Amino acid sequence: MSNETEQWYFCLVHHTVEPLDGCKAADRLGPYRTREEAERALEKVAERNENWDTDPQWNDDVEPPRQQQQ
What we know:
Blueprint: E1 8-11, E2 16-19, E3 28-32, H1 35-39, H2 41-53
Antiparallel strand pairs: 1-2, 1-3
Protein name: SPOR domain-containing protein
Organism: Tenggerimyces flavus
Protein backbone atom coordinates (compact mmCIF):
# COMPACT_ATOMS: atom_id res chain seq x y z
CA MET A 1 0.00 0.00 0.00
CA SER A 2 1.43 3.42 -0.92
CA ASN A 3 1.94 6.25 1.50
CA GLU A 4 -0.62 9.11 1.24
CA THR A 5 2.17 11.71 0.98
CA GLU A 6 4.24 9.74 -1.53
CA GLN A 7 4.62 11.43 -4.91
CA TRP A 8 6.02 10.09 -8.16
CA TYR A 9 7.41 11.82 -11.24
CA PHE A 10 8.25 10.82 -14.80
CA CYS A 11 11.73 11.96 -15.87
CA LEU A 12 11.79 13.16 -19.49
CA VAL A 13 15.59 12.81 -19.66
CA HIS A 14 15.89 9.21 -18.47
CA HIS A 15 12.34 8.01 -19.30
CA THR A 16 12.01 6.56 -15.83
CA VAL A 17 9.70 6.98 -12.85
CA GLU A 18 11.32 8.75 -9.91
CA PRO A 19 10.42 9.68 -6.34
CA LEU A 20 10.52 13.30 -5.15
CA ASP A 21 14.32 13.35 -4.86
CA GLY A 22 15.03 12.76 -8.55
CA CYS A 23 16.01 14.95 -11.48
CA LYS A 24 15.27 18.68 -11.60
CA ALA A 25 11.63 19.73 -11.91
CA ALA A 26 12.09 21.20 -15.41
CA ASP A 27 12.90 17.69 -16.69
CA ARG A 28 9.94 15.92 -15.11
CA LEU A 29 6.19 15.46 -15.33
CA GLY A 30 4.17 15.15 -12.16
CA PRO A 31 3.61 14.76 -9.35
CA TYR A 32 1.47 11.64 -9.61
CA ARG A 33 -0.21 9.89 -6.69
CA THR A 34 1.05 6.45 -7.64
CA ARG A 35 4.01 4.93 -9.45
CA GLU A 36 1.58 3.39 -11.95
CA GLU A 37 0.13 6.81 -12.85
CA ALA A 38 3.65 8.17 -13.38
CA GLU A 39 4.45 5.20 -15.66
CA ARG A 40 1.54 6.29 -17.90
CA ALA A 41 2.67 9.94 -18.04
CA LEU A 42 3.60 10.03 -21.73
CA GLU A 43 0.46 8.12 -22.69
CA LYS A 44 -1.64 10.66 -20.77
CA VAL A 45 0.19 13.56 -22.48
CA ALA A 46 -0.53 12.02 -25.89
CA GLU A 47 -4.23 11.63 -25.01
CA ARG A 48 -4.48 15.24 -23.84
CA ASN A 49 -2.65 16.53 -26.92
CA GLU A 50 -5.02 14.61 -29.19
CA ASN A 51 -8.03 16.04 -27.37
CA TRP A 52 -6.60 19.54 -27.58
CA ASP A 53 -5.70 19.19 -31.28
CA THR A 54 -9.20 18.06 -32.21
CA ASP A 55 -11.21 20.41 -29.97
CA PRO A 56 -13.12 22.71 -32.35
CA GLN A 57 -13.35 25.44 -29.69
CA TRP A 58 -9.55 25.79 -29.67
CA ASN A 59 -8.50 24.68 -33.14
CA ASP A 60 -9.37 26.61 -36.30
CA ASP A 61 -8.46 23.62 -38.47
CA VAL A 62 -11.36 21.54 -37.14
CA GLU A 63 -14.85 22.51 -38.18
CA PRO A 64 -17.20 22.96 -35.21
CA PRO A 65 -20.34 20.85 -35.05
CA ARG A 66 -23.31 22.44 -36.79
CA GLN A 67 -26.17 23.54 -34.59
CA GLN A 68 -29.63 22.54 -35.64
CA GLN A 69 -31.96 25.38 -36.49
CA GLN A 70 -35.22 25.51 -34.62
